[in-house]
């Protein structure tokens, strides 16, 4: 019998999760008619489990982005420096839409350096006061000096570090850490602020590159509970940051779905939250929700929101019914219906180069959690506007 924990999405300090694939502006509505035709699968590629590259083990890929200037993709690993230093891989990804083939060729492994110029250390090797990086999302950002890497870490609560947004040079040198609202600082008492491992899971850039949206995977403690079976959780905060000034400009609330399936065993793991966000245009955003229930697997639902339709909650200390207007969301696709050869723990989405007929290519990467029972899969889809 297979080890049941091999199919759980990773959660530090608890059982981890397993399975699911896909996918300048900064009143919850039940999901309705799709806002656009569902993505059409073009092809997939799978990286061999335990693949060694540039002295690291490839895995834990939780974010992906494409740089049209260089043709390179960035793939961030959420490895907490246990299988190599915290890192971003670059790759070339070929998409043969006619033949249904996707190819992946890794190019480099970029260590994410701390402010002292040293690579991130594992929890075993970190000294007192050293942050253990937990990268989750990545975007290329065009600047006058060339492309740089914008990325998030979920923080290191054991050492007092909360979720963060950072910018690094293509060689991994840390360029800056953005100042964020105090609400994102961890509270050792656990009475408010972000929950451990429920931080900045999603990162989106507006088309002009001037603003970034940071998406919390789960609600702040003071904003409500995490989703449960049949019960939506508290709202997740999505924060718009001006990348020139480094200031948070606006913040909106997004209501995640209830966990759609009960675990097979009573009391078994069951969760749901935001896995990734991606801008459709200056205001419209795709939001990927990922849910897992023990023995039932993962479900993925892609929603569309308009960031202008939600109220600004940046100044609201605790979100409660009646004191804010969350973003209305419309279902775009349930990825169980898209014909993927394998469903796994997808955590990254990006746009690729356009197809000859003008449709967008949407790429998704799954995080194998360095687990033999899971897979690192890159899927390419065609998406009509």
Topology:
Elements: E1 40-47, E2 52-53, E3 56-57, E4 61-67, E5 72-77, E6 87-96, E7 101-111, E8 135-141, E9 148-153, E10 164-168, E11 174-177, E12 200-205, E13 211-216, E14 236-242, E15 248-254, E16 270-279, E17 284-293, E18 297-306, E19 329-334, E20 346-351, E21 360-366, E22 376-383
Antiparallel strand pairs: 1-22, 2-3, 4-5, 5-6, 6-7, 8-9, 9-10, 10-11, 12-13, 13-14, 14-15, 16-17, 17-18, 18-19, 20-21, 21-22
Summarize the structure.
With 385 residues, the protein is mostly beta strands. The chain has no helices and 22 strands. Helix content is 0%, strand content 39%.
Outline the structure in words.
The chain is 0% helix and 39% strand. Residues 1-25 and 27-35 have low confidence and may be disordered. With 385 residues, it is mainly β. The strands form 6 sheets. Strands 1-22-21-20 form a 4-stranded antiparallel β-sheet, with no helix packed on it. The protein has a 4-stranded antiparallel β-sheet with strand order 4-5-6-7, with no helix packed on it. Strands 8-9-10-11 form a 4-stranded antiparallel β-sheet, with no helix packed on it. The chain is globular and about 50 Å long. The protein has strands at residues 40-47, 52-53, 56-57, 61-67, 72-77, 87-96, 101-111, 135-141, 148-153, 164-168, 174-177, 200-205, 211-216, 236-242, 248-254, 270-279, 284-293, 297-306, 329-334, 346-351, 360-366, 376-383. It is built from no helices and 22 strands. The chain starts with 39 loop residues before the first strand and ends with a strand. It has one domain: Tachylectin-2, Chain A.
């Amino acid at each position: 019998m297979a080890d049941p924990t091999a199919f759980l999405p990773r959660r530090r300090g608890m059982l981890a999760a397993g399975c699911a694939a896909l996918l300048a502006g900064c009143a919850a509505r039940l999901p309705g008619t799709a806002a656009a035709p569902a993505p059409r699968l073009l092809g997939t590629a799978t990286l061999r489990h335990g693949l060694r590259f540039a002295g690291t083990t490839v895995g834990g890929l939780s974010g992906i982005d494409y740089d049209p200037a260089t043709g390179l993709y960035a793939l961030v690993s959420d490895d907490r420096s246990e299988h190599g230093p915290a890192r971003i891989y670059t790759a070339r990804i070929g998409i043969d839409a006619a033949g249904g083939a996707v190819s992946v060729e890794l190019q480099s492994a970029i260590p994410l350096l701390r402010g002292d110029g040293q690579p991130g250390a594992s929890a075993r090797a970190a000294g007192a006061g050293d942050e253990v990086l937990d990268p989750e999302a990545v975007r290329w950002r065009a600047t006058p000096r060339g492309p740089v890497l914008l990325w998030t870490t979920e923080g290191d609560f054991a050492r007092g570090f909360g979720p963060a947004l950072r910018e690094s040079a293509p060689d991994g040198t840390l360029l800056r850490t953005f100042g964020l609202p105090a609400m994102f600082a961890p509270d050792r008492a656990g009475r408010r602020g972000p929950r451990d491992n429920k931080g900045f899971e999603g990162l989106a850039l507006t088309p002009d590159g001037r603003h970034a949206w940071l998406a919390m995977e789960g609600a702040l403690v003071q904003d409500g509970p995490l989703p449960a079976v049949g019960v939506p959780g508290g709202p997740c905060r999505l924060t718009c940051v001006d990348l020139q000034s480094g200031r948070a400009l606006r913040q909106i609330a997004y209501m995640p779905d209830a966990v759609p399936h009960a675990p097979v065993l009573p009391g078994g793991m069951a969760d749901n939250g935001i896995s990734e966000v991606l801008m459709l245009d200056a205001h419209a955003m795709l939001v990927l929700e990922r849910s897992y229930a023990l023995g039932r697997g993962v479900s993925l639902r892609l929603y569309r929101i308009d960031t202008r339709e939600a109220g600004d909650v940046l100044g609201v200390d605790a979100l409660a019914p009646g004191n804010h207007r969350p973003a209305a969301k419309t279902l775009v696709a349930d990825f169980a219906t898209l014909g993927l050869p394998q469903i796994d723990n997808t955590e990254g989405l990006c746009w690729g180069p356009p197809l000859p007929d003008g449709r967008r290519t949407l790429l998704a990467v799954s995080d194998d959690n360095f687990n033999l029972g899971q897979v690192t899969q890159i899927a390419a889809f065609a998406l009509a506007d």
